[in-house]
Amino acid sequence: MKILIAEDDFTSRSLLKALLTKRGHDVVAMVNGAEAWEAMQLPDAPRLAILDWMMPGMDGLDVCRRVRARKPDRPPYIIMLTTKGEKADIVAGLEAGADDYLPKPYDPGELHARIGVGSRLIEMQDALADKIEELRQALDQIKTLQGILPICSFCKKIRDDQGYWNQVEGYISKHTDAQFSHGICSECRKKHYPEFAKEGEGGAS
Fold it and tell me: Which partner from 1, 8, 141, 197 sits 20 to 30 angstroms from 161, CA to CA?
């Protein structure tokens, strides 16, 4: 997975990058929040980000707030790293838009486990987004009839928007995806083909 990390401390950044690279992740390392924010606006931005809370200028919370304010169709999963461990700090981080929170110093095993959780959620999110897009495309292809349709009381033709009168089946075929197969109802069979209607009416005496 492509993962963005933002950490201003060189040693901490190098260690985190090495841990993730060893697990096979493609790591994009940023030295501050401003760089992370710019990278996360790109079309090919990583879907998972690990941000340090305490950074000069734009900190991790600022990045989270800006990312969530954009409301992208496929938002990134954000894990916040920080030395802050008070309940109020955790609440502040989650309210700012972080999906997860990991205090420093972190255990590498726990870090990888939380990345695994984020990866699964991203996969589920992508699958749902794909289904929504498929549904949207399907709805775009559906033709529907709405409003009041002027119809002749005698021949049952329908008047279109241009004022022309159309056979019912022709009008419906043009404005929907319905297809017609022709047959003869029992009443019309009796009216137009009385000889066949009588044959069909035979029964036990």
Answer: 141
- Give me the residues paired with residue 82 across strands: 103
Q: Which SS3 state, helix, strand or coil, does residue 49 take?
A: strand
pTM: 0.67
Q: Where are the alpha helices (DSSP H) in the chain?
A: 10-22, 33-39, 60-70, 87-96, 108-141, 168-175, 186-192, 194-200
Instruction: Tell me the mean pLDDT per 10 residues along the chain, length 205.
Output: 95 95 96 95 94 92 93 90 83 91 92 95 91 81 67 84 85 76 80 68 45
DSSP secondary structure letter of residue 144 = -
Q: How many CA atoms lie within 13 A of 90 on its CB side?
A: 8
Buried b (16+ CB within 10 A) or exposed e, 114-153: bbeebbeebeeeeeeeeeeeeeeeeeeeeeeeeeeeeeee
Contacts made by residues 148-151, CB under 8 angstroms, sequence distance 24+: none
Q: What does the radius of gyration of the chain's CA atoms come to, in whole angstroms?
A: 32
- DSSP letter, residue 107: P
H-run or E-run covering 160: none
pLDDT the model gives residue 145: 62
Cα 81 to chain centroid, rounded: 28
C-alpha closest to that of 46 among 17, 78, 70: 78
